[in-house]
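Tip: read the tokens left to right.
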């Protein structure tokens, strides 16, 4: 069982501090989602884990060793970091064969991973003819080549079609179920909540969260209940008398903040309200993530300025 341990990791690029004393561990047997706004430092952290760059200070170890000291790196760690990196004039099969030979990996693995990634039938084509999604599948095939215990996947769903997204989700779940250590960065919150057990969140190079998915969502969202009854006004008075925070959409449906279904159901029964709709909102990872990272985004779009006659004169 091989963990990744990042301890006090700082990476300075000139005046830019991409990582600022980050410490976390990625454990085997689960999928860890690696989240953070653009420029938060996720790719930098992954590059440091596989020795593609040197930290300014701190360490990243895999099973207790720095990547450079691993006896058999390709069999220990598989990484998808830059799907554009493969040489375009080679065929996909030749590319994977060269990697296998370099890593002393049995040739039979080449066809296995091409099959597994769903590109065996197009593996004779030059990589430069590949779409983004096909390159992504090729990158995943090469990450799997050494049957590694640890997988680092930087935005693996990027460019994949819906079938591909389902495939990568199931692949990550099965790799974790086999006891492997799987770290996956993504900007797709719906996707991440479908595959991750645990989350590590960075913001501006610092660690913002390192927590199980369910705990993360409940810590950063407020439960909400929707209630619609036959008498909107009496409902409003009852909610107000209870001291609850609520808002109405104008169609007689009230949204009650920080409430649970049982409590609101009991209130409606007590008040003799005829309930037409009573439901709890499923808190989403997206809401939790946006609540946590508000103020942590380096790049934010501003609404286009509308010129008023005063402003333009
Ligand atoms: N080689 C480099 N030279 C200079 N600055 C860099 C370099 N690599 C990354 N940075 C900077 O470090 C910061 C972190 O970048 P990084 O790519 O790790 O973020 P990220 O979380 O992966 O972002 P994204 O979600 O946009 O991929 C950014 O401000 C980036 O511009």
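Filled-in amino acids:
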């Amino acid at each position: 069982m091989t963990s990744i341990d990042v301890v006090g990791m700082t990476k300075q690029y000139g005046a830019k501090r991409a990582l600022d004393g980050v410490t976390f561990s990625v454990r085997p047997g689960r999928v860890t989602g690696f989240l953070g706004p653009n420029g938060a430092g996720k790719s930098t952290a992954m590059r440091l884990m596989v020795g593609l760059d040197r930290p300014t200070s701190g360490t990243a170890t895999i099973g207790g060793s720095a990547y450079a000291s691993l006896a058999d790196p390709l069999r220990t760690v598989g990484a998808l970091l830059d799907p554009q990196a493969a040489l375009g004039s080679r065929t996909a099969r030749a590319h994977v064969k060269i990697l296998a030979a370099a890593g002393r990996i049995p040739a039979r693995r080449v066809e296995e991973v091409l099959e597994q990634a769903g590109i065996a039938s197009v593996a004779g084509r030059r990589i430069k003819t590949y779409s983004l999604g096909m390159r992504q599948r090729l990158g995943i095939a090469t990450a799997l080549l050494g049957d590694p215990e640890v997988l680092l996947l930087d935005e693996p769903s990027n460019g994949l079609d819906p079938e591909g997204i389902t495939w990568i989700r199931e692949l990550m779940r099965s790799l974790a179920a086999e006891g492997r250590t799987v770290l996956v960065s993504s900007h797709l919150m719906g996707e991440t909540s479908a595959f991750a057990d645990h989350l590590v969140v960075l913001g501006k190079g610092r660690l913002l969260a390192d927590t199980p998915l369910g705990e993360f969502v409940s810590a950063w969202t407020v439960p909400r209940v929707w209630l619609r009854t036959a008498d909107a006004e009496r409902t409003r008075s009852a909610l107000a008398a209870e001291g609850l925070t609520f808002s109405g959409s104008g169609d007689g449906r009230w949204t009650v903040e920080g409430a649970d279904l049982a409590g609101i159901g009991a209130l409606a029964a007590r008040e003799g309200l005829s309930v037409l709709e009573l439901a709890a909102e499923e808190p989403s990872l997206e809401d939790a993530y946006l609540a946590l990272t508000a103020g942590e985004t380096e790049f934010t779009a501003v609404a286009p300025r509308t010129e008023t006659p005063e402003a333009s004169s």
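The chain is about 35% helix and 25% strand. The mean pLDDT is 91.
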